[in-house]
Write a structure and sequence with these properties.
about 130 residues, mainly alpha, 2 strands
């Protein structure tokens, strides 16, 4: 079973609140989703995956359900709010991956076709060991 990994509170809250609070942007979202599900994701798959793992994260850390977040007028407001949350809940939290079979991944091209029916999709196949197509 994959190991438990520690994530910043902003990563967890990005998933549970639906507001981008990750201190390192979408890269942090990829890391927590891929770690928790045990599968790599493409950008268009992140919202569905986040919705599916949010209850699992809240099960591991029930206090996440207490935290709600609106928007921020500026960066200083974000940092002030996040500093308050970190002081109350801590900055880093262990996340255990979902048990095998709990999360069912989807083929990224099939999922994209469902999201945008009728729109032409051109798939580019990378050679073995090629660059990550994300």
């Amino acid at each position: 079973m994959p190991e438990t990994e520690r994530f910043h509170l902003g990563h967890l809250l990005s998933i549970t609140t639906g507001v981008m609070l990750s201190p390192d942007g979408v890269g942090g979202i990829y890391r927590i989703i891929d770690h928790t599900t045990g599968q790599p994701h493409m950008t268009h798959q992140l919202p569905r995956a986040a919705e599916e793992i949010a209850p699992y994260l809240t099960e591991q850390h029930p206090w996440l359900a207490e935290i709600t977040c609106g928007g921020f007028d500026n960066e200083a407001d974000y940092h002030g709010w996040m500093d308050e949350q970190v002081a109350r809940y801590g900055e880093w939290h262990a996340v255990t991956p979902m048990p095998p079979g709990q999360y069912v991944g989807r083929n990224p091209l099939e999922e994209l076709r469902e999201m945008a029916p009728g729109v032409p999709i051109i798939a580019v196949e990378m050679p073995e060991g090629g660059a990550d197509p994300r």
